[in-house]
Amino acid sequence: MHEMSLVEGVRELVEDAAQREGFRRVKQVRVEIGQLSGVEREAFEFCFDLAMRGGITDGAQLEIVATPGRGRCPTCGKEGGLAVVYDPCEHCGMAPVAVIGGTEMRVIDLEVE
Questions:
Q1: Minimal CA–CA distance to 97: which of 74, 69, 67?
Q2: Cα(first)–Cα(last) distance of the chain, in Å?
Q3: Which of 20, 51, 67, 78 is the most exposed place for a label (fewest CB within 10 A)?
Q4: pLDDT digits (tens, 9 = 90+) for 7-58
Q5: Measured between alpha carbons, how far is 57 from 79 in angstroms, rounded to an integer?
Q6: Whole-number Å distance between alpha carbons of 67 and 85
């Protein structure tokens, strides 16, 4: 389960920010997770609850902002939604479509005290 290592990375980012900025407690962490990122939302939420126990992150709430997949067709040049990396173009039906969005996973912001 790679979600645990991702969440541990988020915790490390938060703790580094706390040292730089001097906040004492994290109330909420808002994370963007793209539909095509390969991150399982439920597993990420489960791991978040475990990894945030203790220290300044104890009790922090998680808010996930889902980003839809986007692709650009090299054949017709149009952009559109992409549910799965290997889906054909929704406009002309050709495949493969170049992925241009929805692969990201990043911390957007924190609510702190």
A1: 74
A2: 31
A3: 20
A4: 999 999 999 999 999 999 999 999 999 999 999 999 999 999 999 999 999 9
A5: 39
A6: 14
Classify 104 as helix, strand or coil. Answer: coil
**pTM more than 0.90:** no
**Token pair of 50 as six digits:** 């475990």
User: What pLDDT score was predicted for residue 103?
Assistant: 96
Place of tokens 């991702």: 6
User: Kind and range of the H or E element at 44?
Assistant: helix 41-51
Contacts of 67 (CB under 8 A, 6+ apart): 32, 33, 34, 35, 101, 102, 104
Helix axes 41-51, 3-21, angle to 10 degrees: 50
pLDDT digits (tens, 9 = 90+) for 54-91: 999 999 999 999 999 999 999 999 999 999 988 899 99
Pair of tokens at residue 47:
């791991």
Amino acid at 61: Q
